[in-house]
Write a structure and sequence with these properties.
The chain has 164 residues and is an alpha+beta fold. The chain has 2 helices and 6 strands.
């Protein structure tokens, strides 16, 4: 028997068994699949938890390295982490773009732990995306200003402007 004949026989057998399994008025699919819950864009409710700090280098800088104890100058934009949203960015809650850069002493605990850990080793001119689990952000408390709910994972796009 030729390949095309075998293929045609298999198709006919599948079509026949499928037709016999259907009852009049029944849907063509074998089982009803429930629709997923609607996704609310820009929701302020906590999203799925990020398991650990994720650091993604979008551009590696060539300048001075950010080390513990150095003062870093950063531009940032922060969103609620939503894995199913475009680029995993949910609702924007803050940004320094268009303002003065944020400066802080790295490792001194003046920012959330995810920043102290995620900025380490960056070089001036570098750009990173930080996906920060709730326990390295604000944990079970809401952030000051109320725009970050408790237990929220966050995502930041950061740029290291200077290190002193």
């Amino acid at each position: 028997m030729q390949r095309s004949s075998i293929f045609a026989a298999v198709l006919c057998a599948l079509a026949t068994s499928f037709a016999q399994a259907q009852t009049p008025g029944a849907p063509a699919t074998p089982a009803e699949v429930p629709a997923p819950p609607p996704m609310v864009v820009g929701s302020a409710t906590p999203g799925p938890a990020a398991e650990q700090l994720i650091v993604i280098d979008n551009k590696v800088g060539m300048g001075r390295e950010a080390t513990t104890g150095s003062t870093v100058y950063m531009h940032y934009s922060g969103w609620l982490y939503r894995p199913l949203a475009k680029n995993m960015h949910g609702k924007l809650f803050d940004s320094s773009v268009g303002r003065e850069p944020l400066d802080f002493i790295l490792g001194a605990g003046r920012v959330i732990k995810g920043w102290d850990q995620g900025i380490q080793g960056m070089r001036v001119g570098g750009k990173r995306t930080l996906i920060i689990p709730a326990d390295l952000a604000y944990g079970s408390r809401a952030a000051p200003g109320g725009n970050i709910p408790p237990n929220s994972a966050l995502i930041f796009d950061v740029e290291l402007i200077d290190v002193k």
